[in-house]
Amino acid sequence: xxxxxxxxxxxxxxxxxxxxxxxxxxxxxxxxxxxxxxxxxxxxxxxxxxxxxxxxxxxxxxxxxxxxxxxxxxxxxxxxxxxxxxxxxxxxxxxxxxxxxxxxxxxxxxxxxxxxxxxxxxxxxxxxxxxxxxxxxxxxxxxxxxxxxxxxxxxxxxxxxxxxxxxxxxxxxxxxxxxxxxxxxxxxxxxxxxxxxxxxxxxxxxxxxxxxxxxxxxxxxxxxxxxxxxxxxxxxxxxxxxxxxxx
Length: 247
What we know:
This protein is α/β, with parallel strands linked by helices. It contains eight helices and eight strands, in the order βααααβαβαββαβαββ. The radius of gyration is 17 Å and the shape is globular. The two termini are about 15 Å apart.
């Protein structure tokens, strides 16, 4: 797995002003809250596997989509900066503005918005949560798939559909894991790209994921995997950005 140069971003004067008002204590409170939410979601995943109880999607619909964004929406600027870097990495790799792009686990559409700002117009969204979809900007996405990725079965997306898949903040335990990448390979065109980030907070998961990606390299599904250091939450948390090319 190749490692390339770290990537940072320049802020506007307005963004610098907003970021400067966010204290470390406020961010720590936010991260603790976020980890509590993640623990609840993982419990939901285990329940759904063992007792056919509520899934992560239902959890987002009933709880996270309403409470999370109302309580911490003012901290979006920290996350958006990381999203912008993902979009810029994608732009550096995808030369054709009409390329077909899928925003995986699109959430409220922050990634799609940043990608559109760079001139890409042929963007679709994959998002299972009805509540998240209500927040999704419809003018950004051409097609929207309301479904969850399941390693045990294929999605409704046809083979060889996309030039690039992009995902921010969604490759982590209980969400998108190594087992999902075979499905990514299926829906990408040969030589297609997968671009995503994984926070330093999830370094143990990241090591397991890299083992899974190495296995896909060895079986010929992937042509290359590169990673670079970047921000996740600006000023407070870093991440790896991965750029994967299919065979």
